[in-house]
Specification:
Blueprint (H helix, E strand, L loop, with lengths): L2 E6 L4 H12 L4 E8 L7 E4 L2 E4 L1 E2 L10 E4 L3 H13 L3 E4 L15 H4 L9 E3 L3 H17 L1 E10 L5 H16 L39 H14 L4 E8 L6 E9 L5 H9 L4 E3 L20 E8 L6 E8 L3 H17 L4
Parallel strand pairs: 1-2, 1-6, 2-5, 6-7, 7-8, 9-10, 12-13
Antiparallel strand pairs: 3-4, 9-11, 11-14, 13-14
The structure holds adenosine-2'-5'-diphosphate.
Length: 343
């Protein structure tokens, strides 16, 4: 069977990768509709010799569409997805809007594909940092039973969309030209103040939750990790934006219920679906963001046992967050649904 497919937000940083993943991973489409704002209507996007004309997203865009991949922001999903559901379209949403809705499965296919069976027309794709971490930790959790995670992230500017990437390029040039860098978007377009990202690190991704002093991005890691693993893992996250164009890195420390056996740890990581163990310190082999642009794997290195705790393990995780953290995971959810007879 072939499907009538739509991409909502097709001109954005993630939307473009969704288009690429649909081709690269052979999502069986009969037709492909690219949707964006009125600003982009009529724009022609060429891919693999085919031309696609971008259409304006409206309430009527989903008549006859079987499956839609969404990445145009939470407010767009909130406003338009009910029309898509009504039209019988199955929606895979990369925004945060529906993620914690108990009616909506939140899925990393290799971790909790079973949850897809309960969908009611909407499936949420988790936050990029959470997907990457969940994928890397899944087999370790199955075997050693993770109780607690302490994570610091080093997140690329493309997580803030095309505007984030443009800002890093522009500000870098401004600094090189001896000018003051002008900040317009980061750390968060909708917050009050903006700070330069060029030659800087910003310890704020998304807005603050003033009740508990964590940011929303940090709370996504806390809450979404529990929902994906379907257990009460304790998570403490610090999310930082760094001047990297593409690829999120995470320093992850876990505490497990069962004592760790390092041979088993390496065996599980080598044998985890979607995970590439990239760890050879004698030869200075460890993952770095610039090594893996455009690939769909989660790369894990610097794996080491805590010096004082037999239940403590540190590692360094890197993945192209536009791929595994967003577009690839969404398309993989669609492929998994076909395999499970749900689409
Ligand atoms: P457009 O390019 O027409 O503004 P990014 O992830 O880079 O921030 O991209 C956001 C995506 O969401 C873009 O494809 C953008 O389209 C789309 N988008 C933003 N606002 C709207 C809207 N009101 N209706 C439809 N699509 C929108």
């Amino acid at each position: 069977k072939k499907y009538k497919v739509a991409i909502v937000g097709a001109t954005g940083a993630v939307g473009r990768e969704m288009l690429r993943c649909i081709f690269q991973f052979n999502f069986p489409f009969e037709s492909l509709k690219l949707l964006a704002s009125a600003r982009s209507a009529g724009k022609v996007i060429e891919f693999e010799g085919q031309e696609f004309v971008v259409e304006e997203l409206t309430e009527n865009s989903f008549e006859g569409v079987d499956v839609a991949f969404w990445s145009a922001g939470g407010s767009i999903s909130e406003k338009y997805m009910p029309y898509a559901v009504k039209a019988g379209c199955i929606n895979i949403d990369n925004t945060s809007h529906f993620r914690m809705d108990p009616e909506v499965p939140l899925v990393v296919p290799e971790v909790n594909a079973e949850a897809l069976k309960d969908h009611k027309g909407i499936i949420a794709n988790p936050n990029c940092t959470t997907i990457i971490m969940a994928s890397a930790l899944n087999r370790l959790n199955e075997y050693f039973d993770i109780e607690r995670i302490v994570v610091s992230t080093y997140q690329a500017v493309s997580g803030a969309g095309v505007a984030g990437m443009e800002e890093l390029y522009r500000q870098s040039q401004e600094v090189l030209d001896g000018k003051e860098p002008v900040a317009k978007t980061l750390p968060c377009a909708s917050d009050k103040k903006h700070y330069p990202i060029a030659f800087n690190c910003i310890p704020q991704v998304d807005k603050f939750d003033l009740d508990n002093a964590f940011t929303k991005e940090e709370m996504k890691m806390v809450n979404e990790t529990k929902k994906i693993f379907n257990k009460d893992i304790k998570v403490n996250a610090t999310c930082v934006r760094v001047p990297v164009l593409r690829g999120h890195s995470e320093s992850v420390y876990i505490e497990t219920k069962k004592p760790l056996d390092m041979d088993k740890v390496f065996e599980l990581l080598s044998d985890s679906h979607g995970v590439d163990l990239y760890d050879d310190i004698e030869n200075q082999i460890y993952p770095m963001a610039t090594l893996f642009i455009g690939d769909e794997l989660v790369h894990v290195g610097r794996v080491r046992k805590d010096l004082d705790n037999d239940h403590g393990l540190s590692m360094w995780i890197v993945s192209d967050q536009l791929m595994k953290g967003a577009a690839y995971n969404s398309v993989d959810i669609g492929l998994k649904m076909i395999e499970m007879g749900l689409l």
